[in-house]
Amino acid sequence: MIAPETLKRLEYDKILTEIATLAHSDATYERVMATAPLDTPEQIRLAAGRVAEVRKLISLGIALRLDAFQDIRPLLEAVRPAGAFLAPQDLLLFIPVLSAFGDISRQLAPRSDCPGLASLAPPLRPFPDILEPLVASIDHDGSIMDSASVQLREIRRAKRTLAARIRKKIEEIVRDNAIEIFLQDDFITQRSGRWVIPVRMDSKGMVRGVVHDVSASGETAFMEPLEIIPFVNELENVSAEEKAEEIRILRQLSAWLREDAPALEGCFATLVALDVLNCTARFAERHGLETPNLNGEGALRLVQARHPLLMMLQRQGAIPRVQPLDLEMGDDGRVMVITGPNAGGKTIALKTAGVLTLMALSAIPVPCDGARSTFPLLDTLLVDIGDEQSIEQSLSTFSAHVARIVTILGQAGPHSLVLLDELGAGTEPQQGAAIACGVLRDLQERGATVIATTHLSEIIGFVHRTAGMINAGMEYDAATYTPLYRLISGEPGHSHAVEIARRYGMPERVIAFAREMVGSGGAEFTALLADLHRRRDELAEAQRELDRQGDALRRKQQEVEARAGAIEAARREASDRAWTEARDLISTTRRQMNELLEEYKREKRAETIERLRQSEADLTGQLKPRTSEGLELLPLKEVAAGDAVHIRSLGHDGVVVSVDPRQEKARVRTGSMEVDVAVGDLAAPRKQGKEKARRPAPGAWKAGQVETEEDGERELKLIGLRVDDALDLLEPFLNHASLNGLTEVRIIHGVGTGRLRDAVRDHLTRHPLVAEFRSGGPHEGRDGATVVLLRGC
C-alpha cells in the first residue's frame, strides 16, 4: 500500500488530473482521480492489456462510442421505493447512458481481438424495452412528447382545439364595435391562467366579465369576458387530464427503471470502467506512451524516460525539449547515489523514476522505451522529497528529514523503492554525510531499492567502496559549467558551486577566497572528475567509430554474399540448361540412329551408311566445345601460373593464378573475380596475350558481332538473326559482361516485326543476372535496342 502523501509528493495527482480531463462524466473523473497502484501482477497485466486493446481500436479508427453522460446511480437510488417516479429532466439523463450501453455492446460483440474488454463484468447489454419508450416520451428539453401515449396525444389535440376556439371567440369580442371603444388596446393575453382583454379602468363596468388583474399604472383592468368562461373551464378540465396522463407515463417509465435497477447499476459501473480505460488510452496516444515491463527481482531500468509533466509543458510550448533519462539498477547494485550541480536535474531524475514506477504499477503506459525498460513489483514506495520544516511541531528542516527517514527505515523491505532527496543536508556536512552513509547501508541490508541525491562529496567514497552501491552524476559542460541534464551511471558528479557562483556574477575576490578555503584536495577532485569525463567521451566516440566500421563491414559482407549467390544461381541455371540440351540432343540422335539402323537392316544400302556417318559427324560437331565466335577450343596439356586460358564451362577467358596438381584444380582470375575450376575445364584462350578487340568502322559490323570496350563487351548486335540463334548468343554475352564487372549493356535487335525484340525481353525477364531493362533512349536506338542493368556480382 502506497500512502496518499507519497503520491502527492511525486505529483502523481497532476498526471491523473491530465488524464481525467478526457473523461465523459463526473463519475469517470472521480474514478480516474482515485487511480492507485494495483495489488497484484495479474491485476496490472489485465488492466494494461485492456488499455492496449482500446489503443488498438483507436488506431483502427473504431474508438469506443462514448459521449458525455451523467451519473445515474443517485437517480436509481431515488426511484427504488415503490410508487416513486422521476421528473422528465431526470429521465432524460438515462437516454445517453442506455444508448452507450447498446452502442458499445454491439461494437464489441463481433470482435475476438479484445478479450480483456470482453471480460469486464457485468458485460454491457442494451435495454431497448426502456430506451425506446424513453426516446419516444422525453424530448431533448425535458418535456413529455405527444408520442408518449395515444391518450396523451388525444388530450393535447382536444386542448389545442379548445384553445383555438377561445382565441377565436375573444378576437370576435375585441372586434365588436360595442366593446372596442372601451378597450385600452386590442391585444389578447393571459393572467393567472385565464384569457383576458385590456379594458380601460373607467369603463370596466361597460364590459361583461371578471377582472383578474390590474396594470401597474392602475389605468387598465384585465378582464375575462363572460362568453368564454365555459370554454376556459372546459380547457382547465382537459389540462387536468393531461397532467394526470403525464404522471401516469412518468410512473410507468420509472417502474421499468426500478425493475431493472440492479442490472442498470452494474452496466453503469462497466461503462465508467470503459471510460477510464478510454481516458488512459487517449492520454497514452496523445503523448506516445508505451506499455512497460514488470519484474519481481527488484530491477529498475529506464531507457529514454521522460517526466510526464515536463512532456505536458513541452506540448504546451512552455519548454523547448525534455532530455531523456537512462537509469539502470539491478544485479550490479540496488543503491544509487546521484551527485551533481544545483539545477542539474538530480531531483527531476529522482521524481521521474518514482512517478514512472507509480504509473507502471497502475497499468498506465509510461513515457520511455517500453521494450527495454522494466519496473519492479513493489509492496511500498517511500519518499523523502522537499522541505518538511514545521513551525507547529517546532521541527527544523534537518529534524523533519530525520523524522521522515526514521519512518522509512521502519517500513522498508526487499520489495520497497526508496527515494531520498538531498540526503544528509540541513546539518554540519561531515556529520550529515556520516548519517547518510549509515542510512544507505541500513536500507541496503533490508534489501530495498534506493535512489538518493546529495551534494556531500564525502558520501561518494563510501558508495565507491561498498559493493552493491552505484555512484551516478548529472553531466555538465566542462567549458561553460552548464548542466546537460543527462545521468551518467558509474561516475560521480560534482557541484561546481564555485564556478557556478562566478558564472552568476559573484565578485572575483569572493571566488578567490572560496578556492583557498576549498583547498587543493577539492581542486584535485574536480580535475580528476573532469579528466574522467574527458576519457569517457573519448571512449564513447571510439565506440561509435567502431560501430560505424562494423556496420560498413556488415553491409560489405551482405553485398559479397548477394553477389556470390547470384553467381551460383547463374552457374546452376547454366549447368541445368546444358544438361537439358545434352539430354535432348542425345535422345534425338539416338532416335535418328535407330531409324537409320532399321533402314540399313532392311535395305543395306550404301546411302544409309553415308547418312549414319554424317549423323555421327553432326553429333561430334555439336558436342565439341566452341567459343562464342564458333572457333574450336584447343585442349591444354599443361597448365602453369600466368597462363592465359579459356574456361569452357563459363565461356570466358582468364589467367591462371595458381595450380593444385593433387586436386587437379586451378585458380583463374577472370575479370574482377577469381574462381576455382577443374584443369580439364580449361582450354586455349580465344584472345592471345593482352590484345583487345577493336571497334569496327561504322557500318562494318555483322549480325551477332560483339563490340568490346577495354574490360569487356558492352554491346550485342542481333539484327537479322533467328530467335534461337540470337538467344544462343545472348546467354554467353550476359555471362561475360557480368564476370567483367559491367553494370549496363546494350542489345541491338532492331524493330522489324517485333518478334525478336519480344523474345529477347522475355528472356531478360527470367534471367538471374538481370536487375532491370528498358528501351533505348533517343541516342541509344529507341525501341530497336534494349538497355540492360545487370545485378552486382
TrEMBL record:
**Pfam families, sorted:** MSSS (PF20297), MutS_V (PF00488), Smr (PF01713)
Instruction: Identify which top EC class this enzyme belongs to.
Output: hydrolase
Which InterPro entries would you find in this protein's record?
DNA_mismatch_repair_MutS_C, DNA_mismatch_repair_MutS_core, DNA_mismatch_repair_MutS_sf, MSSS, MutS, MutS2, P-loop_NTPase, Smr_dom
Record-linked PROSITE patterns: DNA_MISMATCH_REPAIR_2, SMR
Q: Which regions form coiled coils?
A: 529-559
Q: Which GO terms describe its molecular function?
A: endonuclease activity
Smr domain residues: 716-791
Q: What is its EC number?
A: 3.1.-.-, 3.6.4.-
In this chain, ATP is annotated as bound at 340-347
> Could you tell me which HAMAP family the record lists for this protein?
MutS2
Would you identify the family this protein belongs to, as annotated? Belongs to the DNA mismatch repair MutS family. MutS2 subfamily.
Q: Tell me the subunit arrangement.
A: Homodimer. Binds to stalled ribosomes, contacting rRNA.
Q: What is this protein called?
A: Endonuclease MutS2
Taxon lineage: Bacteria, Pseudomonadati, Thermodesulfobacteriota, Desulfuromonadia, Geobacterales
